[in-house]
């Protein structure tokens, strides 16, 4: 049925409705008709009525067909809309997966660079960040399945002929030094071996001393004769009564067989040279000593008993009123019953007092660890990285207890994120941020060279050059945050969000000349512990980690003060052995004045 027929049906329907709706004057159509005409007229009306009924039934059928067609079209439209929604979700999912793949590729490139490349925070201006990833032979081995197609040998350099690298005719002897090289020496009085001049076969023209160096390492077993005696009216007792020229006391700590010098040596080997207990034990056995590894640990535990008192004194100095401190943390693996758990060691540094404190706190990384250690200390400022700032410190510094403490975030961490965005992400827009941040660090180096006062440093930090750099940084930051996300690498987004989140904390340092610009001091202090972790792999217990924290606190403090860790450990244990318990006089800055050496 076409459109014209449908329109005709509708016109007829309207005509019928109009006849039923509007009343008309009565009209006798059969008037003046003959019977034959009336019969014919009736037949005509009957035929017309039948045709109308047929038309009505046809319209109903057409309407039903149209209704079914409309329903089918609606269902198809719904399916189309649903398909479009699914397609849109699929596009979003694909876009998200593409971004995730790009991020993973950037992370893989970063990981390979960290493994094979330099870790310096420097950027070459001609580096587009699109260099090929470093080739890893281990990846080549994993991808090789025995077929020629899977064989990759890019990590193997091509063989070079001897002519391409001709050898020098006169190789330089790096051990050869001129006779005027006089910087080598040993503290103390040298052992002199003089010549017998009577054996000289000719006339003597000149004499000089030739230096050589000999290392004497030996273990000596000392035996002190103990005498059991009894005095009238008393119980028998044991005593040592030295002869002339022999030690006046038995040189060992109570409950052990170790002398102060031996304890100094093993503490230095384990916590300064980072020698493992296994290697230390093997070294002593090779030198002829019979001892167990557990005994060595117990001896260090004995020394820790006295060093604990020293750490308490150092903590009091580090957390004095209006102190400015840096803090950081690193992980360590500690054995817990039948498994190993990843725990955390914290470090706190007071640059002004040159004190370093390590604290373990059962390896917890809970939010209360740092604030529990600080206690009621009235600090002027506290420096950390962004993660520790957000997780451990942020809410606590808003409380009444720390309301007067300024919280700082390390600007070196901000720079490191833009370096990563430039090197691994290949985003050249990071250059403008790096240039401005590097200018701030150049200002600080100039202040250090000029050795200006804290007040002058504050004035210059708040001067026009620093403000100009901050304005440029802020303007570029806001502009990049408004740009499209697709144009930025994941590392660039991370760097921008980091700087935006911790903007105020990163530039708190301009308020006071005593405030540090970065947390590098704490980062450097934690490195010896990181080396110890890599060598020893794990601690056997929480107590072992606590002992390490105590020794590293003392040794790092001594190093920060520019002193010898070997000399200090020797003087400290000797002073303890001689009965000194004035730990303030035994601190690294005062031990040379102690009277119990």
From TrEMBL:
Ranges annotated as biased composition (Polar residues): 158-167
Keyword Coiled coil: yes
Basic residues: bias regions: 110-122
InterPro entries assigned: Transposase-related, Transposase_IS66_central
Pfam family, one: DDE_Tnp_IS66
Keyword set, alphabetical order: Coiled coil
Region (Disordered): 108-192
Coiled-coil annotated spans: 467-494
Domain Transposase IS66 central span(s) in chain numbering: 258-546
Name of this protein: IS66 family transposase
Lineage, top ranks: Bacteria, Pseudomonadati, Bacteroidota, Bacteroidia, Bacteroidales
């Amino acid at each position: 049925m076409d459109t014209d027929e449908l329109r005709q049906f509708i016109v007829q329907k309207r005509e019928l409705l109009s006849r039923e709706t509007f009343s008309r004057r009565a009209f006798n159509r059969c008037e003046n008709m003959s019977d034959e005409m009336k019969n014919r007229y009736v037949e005509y009306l009957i035929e017309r009525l039948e045709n109308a009924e047929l038309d009505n039934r046809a319209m109903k059928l057409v309407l039903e067909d149209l209704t079914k067609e409309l329903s089918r079209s609606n269902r198809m439209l719904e399916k189309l809309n649903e398909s479009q929604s699914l397609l849109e979700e699929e596009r979003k999912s694909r876009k998200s997966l593409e971004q995730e793949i790009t991020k993973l590729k950037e992370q893989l490139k970063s990981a390979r660079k960290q493994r094979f490349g330099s870790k310096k925070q420097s950027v070459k201006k001609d580096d587009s960040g699109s260099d090929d990833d470093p080739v890893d032979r281990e990846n080549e081995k994993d991808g090789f399945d025995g077929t020629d197609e899977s064989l990759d040998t890019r990590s193997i350099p091509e063989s070079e002929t001897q002519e391409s690298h001709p050898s020098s005719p006169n190789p330089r002897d790096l051990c050869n030094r001129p006779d005027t090289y006089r910087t080598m020496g040993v503290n103390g009085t040298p052992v002199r071996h003089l010549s017998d001049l009577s054996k000289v076969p000719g006339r003597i023209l000149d004499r000089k001393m030739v230096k050589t160096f000999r290392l004497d390492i030996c273990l000596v077993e000392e035996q002190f004769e103990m005498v059991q005696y009894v005095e009238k009216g008393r119980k028998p007792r044991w005593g040592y009564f030295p002869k002339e020229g022999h030690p006046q006391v038995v040189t060992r700590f109570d409950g052990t067989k170790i002398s102060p010098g031996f304890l100094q040596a093993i503490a230095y080997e384990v916590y300064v040279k980072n020698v493992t207990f296994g290697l230390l034990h093997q070294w002593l056995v090779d030198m002829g000593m019979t001892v167990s590894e557990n005994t060595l640990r117990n001896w260090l535990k004995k020394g820790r008993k006295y060093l604990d008192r020293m750490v308490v004194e150092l903590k009091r100095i580090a957390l004095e009123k209006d102190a400015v401190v840096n803090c950081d943390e690193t992980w360590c693996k500690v054995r817990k019953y039948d498994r190993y758990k990843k725990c955390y060691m914290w470090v706190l540094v007071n640059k002004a007092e040159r004190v370093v404190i390590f604290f373990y706190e059962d390896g917890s990384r809970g939010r209360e660890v740092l604030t529990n250690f600080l206690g009621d200390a009235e600090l002027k400022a506290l420096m950390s990285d962004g993660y520790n700032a957000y997780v451990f410190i942020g809410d606590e510094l808003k409380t009444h207890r720390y309301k007067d403490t300024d919280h700082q975030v390390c600007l070196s961490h901000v720079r490191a994120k833009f370096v990563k965005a430039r090197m691994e992400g290949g985003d050249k827009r990071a250059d403008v941020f790096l240039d401005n941040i590097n200018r701030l660090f150049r200002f600080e180096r100039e202040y250090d060279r000029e050795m200006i006062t804290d007040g002058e440093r504050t004035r210059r930090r708040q001067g026009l050059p620093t403000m100009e750099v901050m304005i440029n940084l802020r303007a570029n930051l806001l502009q990049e945050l408004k740009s499209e996300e697709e144009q930025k690498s994941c590392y660039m987004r991370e760097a921008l969000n980091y700087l935006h989140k911790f903007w105020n904390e990163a530039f708190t340092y301009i308020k006071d000349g005593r405030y540090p610009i970065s947390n590098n001091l704490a980062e450097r202090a934690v490195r010896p512990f990181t080396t110890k972790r890599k060598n020893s792999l794990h601690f056997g217990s929480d107590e072992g980690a606590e002992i390490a924290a105590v020794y590293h606190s003392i040794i790092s403090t001594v190093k920060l003060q520019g002193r010898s860790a070997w000399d200090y450990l020797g003087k400290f244990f000797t002073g303890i052995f001689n009965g000194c318990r004035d730990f303030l006089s035994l601190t690294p800055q005062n031990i040379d004045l102690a009277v119990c050496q």
